[in-house]
Amino acid sequence: MTMIKGRGCPLCDEPWQEAAGKNRCLFCGNEEPAEFRCANGHYVCEDCRTADPREMVARICERSKETDPLALWHLVTAHGVFHGHGPQFHFVLMPVLIAVLRNRGLADIASDAVRKAIGRLSEIPALSCADTGLCGVGASAGAVVSLLNGATPVSDGERRAVLRASGNAMLAIARHPGGRCCRQSALATLEAVWVFLREDLGLALEPIAVRCRHFARVADCKAGCTYHG
Ligand SMILES: [Zn+2]
Ligand SMILES: [Zn+2]
Predict the structure, then answer these.
(1) CA atoms of 169 and 163, how far apart (whole Å)
(2) How close is the Cα of 165 to the center of ligand 1, in Å?
(3) Is 226 within the bounds of a domain?
(4) Which domain does 161 fall in, by range?
(5) Which end of the chain is more exposed for a tag (fewer CB within 10 A), N or C?
(6) H/E segment holding residue 52
(7) How many distinct structural domains can be found in the chain?
(8) Pairing state of beta strands 31-33 and 36-38?
(9) Ligand 1 centre and the CA of 10: distance in Å?
(10) Ligand 2 centre and the CA of 193: distance in Å?
(11) Ligand nearest 57 Cα, by number?
(12) pTM for this entry
């Protein structure tokens, strides 16, 4: 994402204005001297503008204090690299969920392990949903469970739990009519894995109502998507 006048704030779409003094990054919390910010005072730091998307996502989630998975997912995917659709969506939801569970005191996963899992999910290519039946977003449900239960290829219950989590997510994604929408797939996965974490892993999580806050920004957003509103 380039911070230029006319393109607007990724969070609220207000145009950029010249700014002076230190500003706090809306994504990662960095404070640094700013040249531009939006009319609502939002600023995006140099690192968050220029870092590799995997690094950017990891850093935001490592620093976040957010406990609402929808709020954190919507914040991270407000970044310009998440305009439209694409394989960059494969590796966002997992670190968001791990961060939220950490902030609720329900998980304590080393950041190295999360970054390694981001790397594995980022290897799932674009179009794999249609080519192989493996949606990278859906697979991130299994990655969350794997980090939590330490599954290995030879473990029994843990590995099967990982497969069930991803399988549930794939089924949830497939229930939505129409072509691919990576935001819809992520929200369907979030809905499915949240239930899985509560009911299968026994984590103390309240039910959540999943809604898409960015559908107006998706040019080919599907009419009738159940996450609108
Ligand atoms: Zn703004
Ligand atoms: Zn930042």
Answers:
(1) 10
(2) 36
(3) no
(4) 52-217
(5) C
(6) none
(7) 2
(8) unpaired
(9) 7
(10) 28
(11) 2
(12) 0.92
